[in-house]
Amino acid sequence: MLLAEVIASVLLSLVVLFFFLKDGPRICDALVGLIPDERQDDVRAIGARVWEALAGYVRGSAIDGAIEAVLVAVALSLLAVPLAIPLAIITFFAGFVPVVGATFAGFVAAMVALVADGPGSAIAAAAVFLVVQQVQNNVLEPVVLGRTVDLHPLAIVLTLTTGGIVAGIVGVFLAVPTAAVIAAVVRETRDRELVRSLAPQPRRSE
After folding, report:
1. Separation between Cα atoms, residue 98 and residue 67, nearest integer Å
2. Which end of the chain is more exposed for a tag (fewer CB within 10 A), N or C?
3. Model confidence pLDDT, tens digit, residues 151-160
4. What was the pLDDT predicted at 205?
5. Angle at CA 168, nearest 5°, toward 67 and 57?
6. What percent of the chain is modeled with pLDDT above 90?
7. pLDDT the model gives residue 203
8. Cβ(126)–Cβ(104) under 8 Å?
9. Complete DSSP assignment for 67-112
10. How many CA atoms lie within 13 A of 124 on its CB side?
């Protein structure tokens, strides 16, 4: 069940990413066209800020996954576990699925170690991923994603926890980008309203 949910989440992400890259401008123009003319500039500005937030999420996930992959490659090489580099690559891509990605990659590594070198090697490989997962969940993800999506690390932790409680693995996967989008909308709306409030108001003719 866990494997099926992870695969489904990854495939859904790839499909959504494909259509956003292929038809992103058309989708945005169609959505903006539904808004009254006097508000279209606001919507475009909010959309640009949301895009920046989502790009930050992807960038942060890539950085997080790359750090995890390096840690895994070094640790598995020291333990003489076969296929350390391919397993590190799996870890990198699994890093795009918060919390459960490391678990999935760890399971694969443990199975490889079990087949190649027996139970002792499998336990050692699983221990490596257990440590990596703790580092990811408690240090890397909150700090790295917090910087790239402009949210406090504590907000990242609480968002992931809430997403997992509400919607399981899918909730964990969508929690941070959803929070980043909401924060971007709130900030852009606040900033534009502040600019309007400070702008000189036209005098009414007497």
Report:
1. 14
2. C
3. 888 888 888 8
4. 52
5. 40
6. 2
7. 58
8. no
9. HHHHHHHHHHHHTT-TTHHHHHHHHHHHTTSTTHHHHHHHHHHHHH
10. 17
Residue 115 has pLDDT above 80, yes or no: yes
pTM: 0.73
3-state helix, strand, coil in the chain (%, to 5): 85, 0, 15
Q: Which of 56, 62, 65 is closest to 147 using CA atoms? A: 56
Query: In the numeric block, which tokens belong to residue 112?
Result: 């490889």
Tokens for 32, please give them. Answer: 């903006």
Domain residue spans in the chain?
2-195
Are 176 and 153 contacting, i.e. CB atoms less than 8 angstroms apart? no
Residue ranges of alpha helices (H) inside the chain are: 2-33, 40-78, 84-94, 100-117, 119-135, 146-148, 153-198
Burial string for 108-130 (b: 16+ CB within 10 Å, else e) reads bbbebbbeebeeebbebbbebbe
| Token duo for residue 20 | 């956003």
Pair 76, 90: CB distance under 8 Å: no
pLDDT tens profile 52-85: 888 888 888 888 889 889 998 998 888 888 888 9
Quick one: average pLDDT of 175-191? 86
